[in-house]
Each structure stands twice: as structure tokens, then as C-alpha cells.
Design brief:
By secondary structure, the protein is α+β, with helices and mostly antiparallel strands. It is about 15% helix and about 30% strand. The chain folds into 5 domains: about 190 residues, Sandwich (Jelly Rolls), CATH 2.60.120.260; about 110 residues, Immunoglobulin-like; about 260 residues, TIM Barrel (Alpha-Beta Barrel), CATH 3.20.20.80; about 100 residues, Immunoglobulin-like; about 180 residues, no CATH class.
């Protein structure tokens, strides 16, 4: 880094001289006077002319400075509230009081202020600046800024995406000046949508303040206003379009020089210069700058970033500008994207302005490098910025790390606003898009743009048609779509739609993962067949995990995990505090399994362009959506490693199309093996497969040496294996290795006929008088409930399915399923003949699809379940699939799973029933708790 930095300085010095550069900037960071203005008195009372009573440090947010109001029950928030469970659950009652308020919907700031706030500072301007053009730069204010200098109003800006830059030349004088800035973070005339991640308390915390660069910058009377660079990959050229302002009254002859350096090596490109005539005012200059036949391209594998160094000279006037760029061409070709002619498959996640220490995005590259490192470690190559645009540092880091970015115009125009209805937001979106492209459009990582997220309004399609047409015609450096989610317009260059995923909004238990037996031979061909442009699936996943309460201690900044504190107190109130870690790990294993199914379905789809996860990391708002295998700090939770994740999410992923994953002995496993390969180059490999049981290999083979091109749906061969009758249940794993890339799929094999048990045990679906009498007389009974037969008081209204919770129940209005899989002791003797881990795996799909969750707290005695169902963290009920008790002189095992219906077609249920009966026939069946038969009878409708 030192060598590169020194080399860049040498080049700059040859153009401008280092001293001029350092003398042209005044850093305004430091102490500022401060005052809040909740009643909007400041303008009328001319606070910009008087000292303010408090002090703060900038750049920072108000809350970082300890300013704002304490959080109360009446605090006004920016964001939608849904399903106010908080007010109705007695477990949360202690936390609604003024002195102990805890909000369950998002991370809670230490203080909160929404309104106008004033910042004032005395600045000293050097005498030689009087002949200079001076701009005030506020890198990221939030969000509307008004500026006064020496009592005069300079102007107002309200971008949420780019620096607020004010021309202050005519307002300054040599010596002391007063600078006053009024920042207002209220939603006023322009409403981008109160859930937009650019402003909402769900994630970014709708803070007030200024962060990032805060400076005055001087240049000559002739200066660069904007420079756009357009790479030409075919001809190894850079087309430069510079906007130059001549503030002198006379035309000038100017020389424009261009040079470039490859940032990672310091290799330079030959300079070029041309002369131009500048008229007074704004001038448009163009130059074609050759990069040489050996110029390197930019992509995810080789993120070659160049620095363009421009020098402008007109007589005594000089200016310079440096711009990062990459030589790349990202475009749609058919239903795929290509970058420099190579097919690209977008494996993406979202960034929703989640910054748990500050509540605002970092303006330095270090944290962005951490984010993108986590993204790459999990096999991803793409990040979508949902309804917001990040600062410059995010683009710089993405450029240098090879990450493809989708950027959006600060809006989720839904709920509180709409598009195409003539509201101020329409013009704001167009203006914001222009600002974003002007500020960040040269970055090679910036390959996709949408207006924002999930638009509303009866005329949103008409408005967005104009938006996409405008940008597709104006700037070919990236591809454009209407919005994240919808609409799929004819003018779109790609669609970002929610159909291709295994669980969609409101599908509940009817989704493919919850309604169809386990298999891996489906894809989304039918869902994208109608489109002839790339389709990127919108927000796939959304699979939840139980909270990690150990995470609470990480919140050392201005946002606190009060939501987690509430959920922990609720768990404690339900007497399960010691199970918190187990719930996390078991539900995490199910979450990872669901993500694997989602991602593999996308990778199996021929001609598919990619997916965007929601999410690789947790989303702390909207009722708390714990949808990440990483926490909000982009750090691991302990149940899946990046290496494990990359087995099913990577540049190269082996895939197996399995029509089923549960077998009877005598049946054959048939797997069509294919690969999704989107690596740097084609590969030649001899795919190998093996079938294992634990550490033992029971079969293996190869599919022959093959040349594997870039793409997916590439058929490699077939694996067929017949399971011999061994009269024992077992889990087997199919593993495929392609050139060092591994993936695997668990399957289960059960005896086609189970033997009889040694003891005569009564099996019933309800507790009638004959069964009660039998229990009283000392008989043992297996009570296996039929799905839907239990009442709400005992859990009958709990929606139970195989998958984890989708997004979260508080925000979705209680969409099913309501639970997070199972937790059990695999060594429990009741499960001896039903091989299992401590968590859900595919062999539990049948049980979860034919079951009732039984609420143990409805019984008079504490009960220890054999198989527990992990409840939603909002309610934390003690739920069971299997539990036991003594009734009279007899012993009872209660199954929330239907173990009697259609067993000839349900090998898992048949085997589980056998395992339970074997256990009940042994001396190990010795329930500790005792229940009256009437309590059991109350379970049923």
C-alpha cells in the first residue's frame, strides 16, 4: 500500500503539486455549537446569527453526542408497526412503563429526536481563497440540510444518497466567518416511504446529524464540476465526458491531460492531452483515452481497478480530479447477464442499512471490507442495497473486492406514499437517480439500478416505465429495472421478482417446502419461461432462527438490543431460559437446511440470472426478522461455517436431482448429477460420488472425465443404487465432488415392514372411556393425535410445518408456520429406532406435516418432552411433539404426530411408531410426571 500511495502522489505532483492540494481543503470536523429546534423557531428567530447554547462533535449523529429525548411509550417512530403483540402479552407488560420501556420491533436507540437541529461554527478563510471557487461538502447529512454563511441563506438540499455540496464562493470572506447548518430528519413534503431503509427506524434509525467528510474545498475559477467515464472493452478505451465550469468572463483555452494507474500494481498508462475552447459558464468536454492493448478487465475474479488522473490547465487556472474505474461491460444476453462476455450468475444478499453500533452507514472502507469479506466467504458475489444507496466507501471497497452492486434511489414507495400519482416523490426519485449516477456512476461495481423496493400506487407502472426508459437510453454502464419485487415491465432490462423461491408471501403451509415431500428435482423453469430477459429472484429465503441472546453484549454503540432483552425475559417467564443456546443451534440447523434448498433450486434452473437472499445476516427491524446465518455484525452464530455454506453456494456447486429422499429397503436411489459452474474459466473434471453411512462408504464411483463449460443445468451423469434389505433404519449421505467442490444430500432408508413389538400396547387417537379404564388398570397406551384434533388451549391453533418461520410472525400477521423445528436428544431410547440429530432434518418432514404442537403449559404438572417443538421467540410457549406421563397405574406416551393414517405410504411415520412402541415395551419407559385422564381429554376438540 505504501508503494502504491507514493506512486500516486508522484503522478499527482507532476500534474498539480502536492502543496496546492493540501492547501485547498479546510477540515470542519471538531466541536460545533448545537441546539434542537422542535418547534421550528430557529429560522424566524435567526439562530444562524447567534451563538447556540450546547456543543457537539461532528462528524457524528445526535445520539452519538448524547443528544435527543429519552425513549418513552409515546416516542414517535419512522416506520410501520404491525401486529401489536407487545401491548397484549402479559410477559411484556413490565416493559411498557416510562422508566423501563423496551421496543420489540427493532433495535432501540439510546435517545431519539425527529425534527430540526442546528449546528454552528466559526471558520477562518485564508486570504488567498478570495480568488478561489469554494464548495462546502457534507458527505452524509441526514437528511435535509439548510446552510447559512454570515447570516445569508446559501441553499437547501435533501438527498439521502449523495453528499450535499454547496457553492459558497460568494458568501465567504477572508478571515472569520460563521457557518450554520440546520439538519431536519422529518418526513415532510417528500415522503420516500416510512419503511424505506434510507430513513426508517426499522434499520438505519432515522438519525439526525452529519457523518463522513465535512469540509470546505477551494479550486480555481475554472474547475471540474463532474466527470463520467465510459469503458469500451472491445477497443480498450475510456470515453471521458467532463463537465467543466469557466467562471471567468472571457473564453479560455484549456489543456486537459489524462493519465491512469492500475491501483493494485502501480503500473501506469501513457498520458494523453488535448486542448479545448472554454466559453464562460458550463462546458462539455469529451476525450477518448486509450488504455493500451494489455489493459486488464474488471470482474469478480480479477477486480482490476484503475485510477484516472485528470489535470485541467487554462492559463493560471488549474484543477485536477481522480476517478476510480474498471474496464468492464455488464449487460443482459438472453436470460442471463454477462460481464465482458462471460456468463454471470448473481448470488446475492441484501444490505438494508443495518449498522448496529452507529445507526448509520460507515463512510470509511474498513467496515465495508468486513461486509464484503463475509459475503465472499459464503460464496456470494452480489449485494443489493434495499431502498437506499450507500456512501462512496461502499463502492470503493466493492470495486477492489469484485462485488456486483444493485443500488436503489432511497425509496420504498408503499404504505405511506405511492408512485405515479403526482406526489413530490416522483420528481424526487428522478432527481435522486441523477444524483446517484453523477456521484457513483463511474464505479465498476455499480452494475444494476432500480428505483427502490416494492412500489405502490395505481399508476406506479406508468411512472416506472418512464424511469427505466430514461436510464436505459441515457447510460449503458449498468442495467436497469423498475423495482425490487415488481413490476415486471416490458422496458425492464432485467426483472427482480419474487416468484422463483420456495416460500412466497402468504403461501404459508402451501409452499413447496411445506406441502411436498422432500425432493431436489424441481427448479423454476416454469416461473421464468414467460420472460426473455434475465430474472433475479427477489428476497429468497427469509428463514428465521431463534435469537442468540449472547449477542446482546455486542451492542456497545448507540443502538441496544432491547428486543432481545424482551424475548429473553419471555423465555425466562416460560421456564426455558437454560434452553436458549439449544434453541439457537437447533433452529439454526433447520434455517441452514432451508437456505440450502432455496439456493440449490435457483442453481438448478437453466437460464436463470441469479438470486438475492433476505438475508445472509439478520434484519433487526420489522418485528425482528432473524433471517441470517450471520448476526447484524456480519459475524457467525455457531451453527454453520462459511466453508459449509459454500458447499451449496459458490462459483461451482455440484447438484443432485433426487425425486425423493426417504426410501424403503428394496427401493433405489436415483440421482441425476449436474453442476452450476460460473467460475472464471471452464474446467475439466471427473466427477466422483460416494454414498456413506456415517464414516463408512457403502458405494462410490465416477462419472467420467468431462469438459465443463460456464453455465448451469450441465448434466454429468446418473447415480443409481439399490438399498438392500438389512431390516434396520439408517441415514445415508450422497456426496459429489467436482474438481474439489463438494456438496451432499442426506437420505433415509427404512425397512419396508417393521417387526412386531414384544408387548401389547394400546394405540389410540383419542382418550375414550375404555382407554382410560385400561390406563387405570395398568396398561400402557400410545395416544397419537390426528392433525387438527386438538383445541387452541393446548396448541391447536399453532401453525406447524416443516420449515422455519418465514420473516417473522409479528410483521406477517401470523403467517404459518409458527415454529422453528424440533429439539430432541438423539440418544433418547424412544428414538433408538428412528435415527435423528438433535434438530430437524428432512426425515422429520412427514412428522411435522401430520402433527399438532402440544402446549405443555396447559397441563397441571411440569412435563419433560421427548421431542420438543421450538416456538416463536415472541411467544416462547413450551411445545412438544412427544411426551410421556403416568396415568392411573398405567403409562401414557402422547404423540402430537399422527402415527396411524396411511402408514403404507409414510415410511417415516411407520418407523417412528415402531421406535416408540419398542421403547414403551422396555423397562426404560418410566414416566416421571403424573396426569389425570381428564387433563388429557381436555386437549381434544
Amino acid at each position: 500500500m505504501k508503494t502504491l500511495f507514493f506512486y500516486t502522489l508522484i503522478i499527482l505532483a507532476s500534474f498539480t503539486g502536492c502543496s496546492q492540494r493540501s492547501a485547498s481543503t479546510i477540515d470542519l470536523s471538531g466541536e460545533w455549537q448545537f441546539r434542537t429546534d422542535p418547534d421550528d423557531q430557529g429560522i424566524n428567530e435567526k439562530w444562524y446569527t447567534t451563538d447556540l447554547p450546547e456543543s457537539v462533535h461532528l462528524p457524528r449523529s445526535m445520539v452519538e453526542n448524547g443528544k435527543g429525548d429519552n425513549i418513552t411509550f409515546e416516542t414517535q417512530w419512522t416506520g410501520t408497526l404491525k401486529n401489536h403483540f407487545w401491548f397484549n402479552d402479559e410477559n411484556y407488560a413490565p416493559y411498557t412503563s416510562a422508566e423501563n420501556v423496551r421496543i420489540p420491533y427493532w433495535l432501540q436507540p439510546e435517545k431519539k429526536y425527529t425534527g430540526a437541529a442546528w449546528y454552528r461554527k466559526t471558520i477562518v478563510i485564508p486570504e488567498d481563497w478570495e480568488q478561489q471557487h469554494v464548495k462546502l461538502n457534507l458527505e452524509r447529512p441526514h437528511w435535509e440540510s439548510d446552510v447559512w454563511i454570515n447570516g445569508e441563506h446559501v441553499g437547501t438540499q435533501n438527498s439521502l444518497a449523495v453528499p450535499h455540496v454547496f457553492n459558497v464562493t460568494s458568501f465567504l470572506k477572508a478571515g472569520e466567518n460563521t457557518l450554520a447548518i440546520r439538519i431536519d430528519n422529518r418526513v415532510k413534503e417528500v415522503d420516500p416511504g416510512i419503511d424505506s431503509h434510507s430513513i426508517t427506524d426499522h434499520t438505519q434509525s432515522n438519525w439526525n446529524g452529519i457523518v463522513g467528510d465535512l469540509s470546505l474545498n477551494a479550486s480555481g475559477k475554472i474547475f471540474f464540476d463532474n466527470v463520467a467515464v465510459f469503458p469500451d472493452v472491445e477497443n480498450k478505451l475510456l470515453h471521458i465526458k467532463a463537465t467543466v465550469v469557466n467562471t471567468l468572463k472571457e473564453p479560455q483555452t484549456a489543456n486537459l491531460s489524462a493519465g491512469a494507474v492500475l491501483k493494485n500494481t502501480g503500473a501506469s498508462v501513457s498520458k494523453k492531452s488535448e486542448n479545448y475552447q472554454l466559453t464562460p459558464g458550463t462546458n462539455k468536454l469529451t476525450m477518448s483515452y486509450p488504455l493500451g492493448k494489455d489493459a486488464l478487465l474488471w470482474d469478480e475474479f480479477n477486480p482490476n481497478v484503475y485510477e484516472l488522473i485528470l489535470q485541467l490547465k487554462a492559463g493560471k487556472e488549474t484543477d485536477h480530479k481522480t476517478i476510480d474505474f474498471g474496464l468492464r461491460e455488464f449487460k443482459p444476453e438472453g436470460t442471463r447477464f454477462t460481464n465482458n462476455g462471460r456468463p454471470v450468475f448473481l448470488r446475492g444478499t441484501l444490505e438494508c442499512a443495518i449498522f448496529p453500533l452507529t445507526g448509520y452507514p460507515p463512510t470509511g472502507t474498513e467496515y465495508w471490507e468486513k461486509i464484503y469479506s463475509a459475503v465472499k466467504a459464503h460464496g456470494l458475489n452480489h449485494v443489493r442495497f434495499h431502498s437506499w444507496c450507500p456512501p462512496e466507501a461502499a463502492f470503493k471497497a466493492a470495486d477492489e473486492m469484485g462485488i456486483y452492486l444493485q443500488v436503489e434511489c432511497s425509496s420504498w414507495a408503499n404504505v405511506s406514499t405511492q408512485l405515479g400519482s403526482g406526489l413530490p416523490i416522483d420528481q424526487y426519485i428522478m432527481d435522486e437517480s441523477e444524483r446517484i449516477v453523477d456521484a457513483y456512476g463511474n464505479h465498476p461495481s455499480f452494475v444494476m439500478m432500480a428505483y427502490g423496493n416494492e412500489p405502490g400506487g395505481p399508476h406506479h407502472a406508468e411512472f416506472l416505465t418512464g424511469f427505466v426508459k430514461h436510464w436505459a437510453e441515457k447510460d449503458s454502464r449498468r442495467v436497469y429495472t423498475s423495482g425490487g419485487g415488481w413490476p415486471a415491465l416490458v422496458v425492464n432490462q432485467y426483472h427482480n421478482i419474487p416468484q422463483p423461491r420456495i416460500q412466497r408471501w402468504n403461501e404459508g403451509l402451501n409452499s413447496i417446502i411445506n406441502s411436498e415431500p422432500p425432493r431436489s428435482n424441481y427448479d423454476w423453469t416454469d416461473k421464468i419461461a414467460q420472460y426473455d430477459i434475465p430474472v433475479v429472484s427477489h428476497e429468497i429465503g427469509q428463514w428465521c432462527v431463534y435469537p442468540n441472546f449472547r449477542e446482546i453484549e455486542k451492542y456497545t454503540g448507540v443502538l441496544k438490543a432491547k428486543n432481545f432483552e424482551l424475548f429473553r425475559e419471555s423465555l425466562k417467564a416460560h421456564h426455558m431460559e437454560e434452553l436458549a443456546d439449544s434453541f439457537l443451534l437447533a433452529s439454526g440447523k433447520l434455517q441452514a437446511l432451508c437456505y440450502k434448498a432455496d439456493i440449490e433450486a435457483a442453481l438448478r434452473t437453466p437460464g436463470f440470472a441469479g438470486f438475492q437472499l433476505l438475508d445472509l445476516h439478520d434484519f433487526p427491524g420489522q418485528g425482528t426478522a432473524l433471517v441470517g446465518v450471520l448476526d447484524p455484525f456480519w459475524e457467525e452464530k455457531g451453527y454453520i461455517s462459511p466453508e459449509e455454506y459454500r458447499r451449496f453456494c459458490n462459483t461451482t456447486v455440484p447438484l443432485a436431482r433426487l425425486p425423493k429422499r426417504v426410501f424403503n429397503e428394496g427401493e433405489s436411489l436415483t440421482a441425476a448429477i449436474e453442476v452450476a459452474h460460473f467460475g472464471e474459466n471452464p474446467i475439466s473434471a471427473n466427477p466422483a460420488w460416494k454414498l456413506t453411512e456415517g464414516d463408512k462408504t457403502i458405494a462410490e464411483g465416477t462419472l467420467g472425465q468431462q469438459n465443463i463449460s460456464i453455465g448451469n443445468g450441465l448434466q454429468l451423469g446418473q447415480v443409481v443404487y439399490e438399498f438392500q434389505a438389512e431390516n434396520r433404519p439408517r441415514k445415508v449421505t450422497l456426496e459429489v465432488n467436482i474438481d474439489g467442490f463438494f456438496n451432499s444430500w442426506d437420505c433415509w432408508v427404512y425397512p419396508a415392514q417393521v417387526p412386531s413389538v414384544s408387548k401389547n400396547i394400546r394405540v389410540v387417537n383419542t382418550l375414550d372411556k375404555r382407554t382410560i379404564d385400561a390406563l387405570k388398570n395398568g396398561e400402557d397406551v400410545l395416544l397419537t393425535t390426528l392433525k387438527g384434533s386438538t383445541n387452541a388451549a393446548y396448541g391447536g391453533d399453532i401453525g406447524i410445518g416443516f420449515s422455519s418461520i418465514f420473516w417473522n410472525t409479528a410483521w406477517t400477521g401470523g403467517q404459518k408456520p409458527h415454529t422453528l423445528g424440533i429439539l430432541c436428544d438423539p440418544e433418547h431410547p424412544a428414538l433408538e429406532q428412528f435415527p435423528t440429530e438433535y434438530h430437524s432434518n428432512w426425515q422429520w418432514w412427514d412428522a411435522m406435516s401430520h402433527s399438532n404442537a402440544i402446549m405443555l403449559e396447559a397441563f397441571s404438572q411440569p412435563l419433560q418432552p421427548i421431542v420438543r417443538v421450538i416456538d416463536d421467540w415472541v411467544t416462547n410457549r413450551q411445545l412438544a411433539l412427544l411426551f410421556e406421563a403416568r396415568v392411573g397405574k398405567g403409562k401414557l406416551l402422547v404423540s402430537g404426530i399422527d402415527l396411524t393414517s396411511d402408514l403404507e405410504n409414510r415410511p417415516e411415520a411407520r418407523q417412528l411408531k415402531y421406535s416408540l412402541l419398542q421403547y414403551m415395551s422396555s423397562e426404560k419407559f418410566a414416566p416421571a410426571s403424573e396426569l389425570a385422564p381428564e387433563e388429557i381429554q381436555k386437549m381434544f376438540n
